[in-house]
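During the second half of the funding period, the structural biology subgroup turned its attention to how the target accommodates small molecules. The most pressing case was nicotinamide-adenine-dinucleotide, which had performed well in the primary screen but for which no bound structure existed. We therefore specified the complex as follows and requested a full 3D prediction, including the ligand pose.
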Amino acid sequence: MKIKNYINGEYVNPISNNWIENYNPSIGEVYGQLPDSNSQDVEIAYKAAETAFQSWSETTLDERSQILSKIAKLIIEKLPELAMAEAKDNGKPIHVAKSIDIPRASANFQFFANAITQFASEAHESVGQNAINFTLRQPIGVVGCISPWNLPLYLFTWKIAPAIAAGNCVVAKPSEITPMTAYLLGEILTEAGLPKGVLNIIHGLGTTTGQAIVEHPNIKAISFTGGTKTGVHIAKVAAPMFKKLSLELGGKNPAIIFSDCDYNEMLQTTVRSSFANQGQICLCGSRIFVEASIYQKFKTDFIAAVCKLKVGSPFNNNTDIGALVSKTHLNKVKSYVDNAEQYGGKVVFGGNLVAVESSENGYYLEPTIIEVNDNSCILNQEEIFGPVVTIMPFNEESEVLAMANDVSYGLSATLWTNDLKRTMRVSKQLDAGIVWVNTWLLRDLRTPFGGMKNSGVGREGGLEALRFFTEPKNICIKYN
Ligand code: NAD
């Protein structure tokens, strides 16, 4: 199976005819190839986007909205095929792809199909000066969108939908580790009648294809989701060209559990916030802090609940934890577990590789709980991004706040308490772009999404995304 680039509405091979192997992580085998695109491919994609821009930027909002809605509908029509492709490419349980990833990819298009019809800008009357100012929000031109492997179609579409809704043309690159559903999206774009060149999808490595997008002098904005290290690099490359940048990066999110919470709901949700998608969600709560008075009970009950999670093939409907995305990633995650003691932690559950029947070479790891006693340890400071969480007791609100914030990241935080005053006090002080209280990953697409500190710059979602993908121009008209 050969994945191709989607440029100017056509599937094409990379110029170099070089290919990269694509793995199925659930069995640890190569099942296809994807283009190893270079700067020439990026240039061709750029030219297609540039050519399409004038006409696309002048389409009516209604026309754009209808095309985006059509894409949303077609994604739902092809849900079984897309979910199967996502599970095979990424290792995630197919029921998760069916119920979360693919519906959300469709929702991203539908949301921005609606949002663009409601997008408005400000006007300011300069009272006493006989002048009116209004803000014209124009599309930027050709923009670059680069996405990671953990929620492949979900995060890819979260960028490209607002970009094209706002009237831009796009050169987009999905992760080379999970290219399949972005490839399949090409057919959908054609079927939905998206004009040629509006959205070009090219495949390849970050250091070549991705780098060529970021370096391109006429790609004027980059929306990137991925690791913090890559984000730092992209920011350095883009800064001298004054590109507009949106960076959604890593996290090391605290889950803070007070004894007055609704215990059963907290327990159930904490299992999910720890291990959903094999713990490979930037929003997973990977540092769990529990009030000392309920710590021992929590530890016992949490272990008992995690013990019930089934590690298995992504294609079994009763699998809770599928395969990790790659061998390299599995080794990285496992090394934190293997060195847990040296890092000051104690594995209290899991930690072993799992040989899944008929898929013995797949990349499976038990959900793992590590007890720590110092937030400054590596296990609490570095993003592991796998099915591994730490647990630790705390006594005081001020103590847990200090620990929650004592980390270089600031993406999300989860807070469990029924005390309203505490909810407000703690939420206001947490270094996090998103705080969930008595829930986790409850998403409303209108809300700003993103992180503080080393978790990124800028926000996606709702009008924030449409503002990012447009250039505000103030027009001042004097009258007599
Ligand atoms: P990554 O940074 O390795 O890769 C992300 C994307 O960037 C890929 O498409 C990759 O090919 C590309 N890339 C790599 N080097 C590049 C370069 N020099 N120039 C341009 N593009 C380049 O990240 P990953 O391993 O795919 O994803 C996991 C990371 O993503 C984790 O750190 C996770 O926390 C983060 N993440 C963040 C969010 C968020 O919303 N904040 C969401 C999901 C994942």
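Two results from this model are relevant to the next phase. The chain has a mean pLDDT of 98. The first helix runs from residue 39 to 57.
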